[in-house]
Amino acid sequence: MTQINSALLVMDLQNAIAGHLGDKQALFPYKIALEAARNHNIPVIFVRVAFREGYPEISPMNRMFARAAQYGGMTVNDETTQIHPELAPQPGEPIVTKKRVSAFAGSDLEMILRAKGINQLILSGISTSGVVLSTLTEAADKDYQLTVLSDACFDPDPEVHRVLLEKVFTKRADVVTVDAWVDTLV
Questions:
Q1: Hydrolase: present as a keyword of the record (predicted)?
Q2: pLDDT single digits (tens) 30-67
Q3: Which DSSP symbol is given to 186?
Q4: What burial letters (b/e) apply to 24-42, b meaning 16+ CB within 10 Å?
Q5: Which terminus of the chain is less hemmed in, N or C, by CB atoms within 10 Å?
Q6: What does the alpha-carbon distance between residue 171 and residue 177 come to, in Å, rounded to a whole number?
């Protein structure tokens, strides 16, 4: 029987994107998940989207990211791409930089997961219809066991968020609240 080794992915909780949450109270579920993972020695991996100066990774054909290249910002050293200070990584917690929507796209995430023997991912992030959906789909195709923390995901469209959590994600992952996940760790 295969041993289950989990990691918590905290995706796109960077300054430019976390601002979509509104108030600091919205960060509470992410903080609880981080604290629980750290207290139970579950590796935490932060994922952000950022680009090199001059945006060599962005094609003008890419509808989502071409605006970043056109208007600036979102570079690896830009304040907008740094992890939100309320959720600051601790020493030894990697920050993976991706180049597209999925946490795997253009990043070294899979290399880190293999090196640590991780075969189960606990997903959290902004947005449900963006990084969470794309990462879940790719991770399921790569045979990872998946859990989605429903209240540690956010989407600007509440109906899209609901449909993904209740109808789409449940076909490939366990969908639970942060509290329910924490209860399984005790």
A1: yes
A2: 999 999 999 999 999 999 999 999 999 999 899 888 88
A3: -
A4: eeebebbebbbebbeeeeb
A5: N
A6: 17
Q: CB count, 10 Å around CB of 129?
A: 17
40 alpha carbon, distance to own chain's centre: 19
- The SS3 assignment for 143 reads coil
Measured distance CA(172)–CA(186) in Å, rounded: 25
In whole angstroms, give the CA distance from residue 131 to residue 12. Answer: 7
Instruction: Report yes or no: 157 and 164 within 8 Å, Cβ to Cβ.
Output: no
Q: Hunting for tokens 């070294």 — which residue is that?
A: 108
Nearest to 150 by CA among 138, 163, 139: 163
Q: Which fold has domain 6-185?
A: Rossmann fold (3.40.50)
**Residues shown for the chain:** 186
Question: 125-153 pLDDT, tens per residue?
Answer: 999 999 999 999 999 999 999 999 999 99
**Amino acid letter at 80?**
T
Degrees, nearest 5: CA angle 26-29-31: 100
Q: Which residues lie below 8 Å from residue 130, measured CB to CB, with a gap of 6+?
A: 12, 101, 155
**Domain locations in the chain as residue ranges:** 6-185
